[in-house]
Write a structure and sequence with these properties.
Elements lengths: L11 E5 L2 E8 L4 E7 L4 E5 L4 E15 L2 E6 L3 E4 L5 E16 L8
Antiparallel strand pairs: 1-2, 2-3, 3-8, 4-8, 5-6, 5-7, 5-8
């Protein structure tokens, strides 16, 4: 575990067409991830046992949590309880900052 992370040294991985993930820091109980989206990129509906809070750093996103869909802009946030299906469609290229508790071990493999 590193105490200091320089973003230019953290790997950026393409995880789906138009979506790139950069893990900025983590320990076993917490993880911070920067996710870059191209316009039109879709993160399909999924769920996981982790709690998640996401901040819209830039761009415009259509976010669905359960049965509810909202359009979110720069500066907005959303909170995801465990195991609730959610997904996003990028309406204008942007960046989401995801925090997870506990850390997403699947992202580290």
């Amino acid at each position: 575990m590193k105490n200091y992370i320089h973003s230019h040294e953290a790997a950026i991985v393409e995880v789906a067409p138009g979506i790139r993930r950069q893990i900025l820091g983590h320990d076993t109980s917490l993880m911070l991830v920067r996710v870059q989206f191209d316009t039109g990129a879709i993160s399909p509906a999924h769920s996981h046992p982790h709690q998640q809070v996401t901040y819209v750093e830039q761009g415009i996103f259509e976010v669905t949590i359960g049965e509810e869909t909202k359009v979110l802009h720069q500066g907005d946030c959303f909170i995801l309880p465990t195991e609730v299906p959610h997904g996003a469609r990028c309406l204008e290229a942007g960046v989401l900052i995801d925090s997870f508790s506990p850390a997403r071990e699947d992202f580290l493999q």
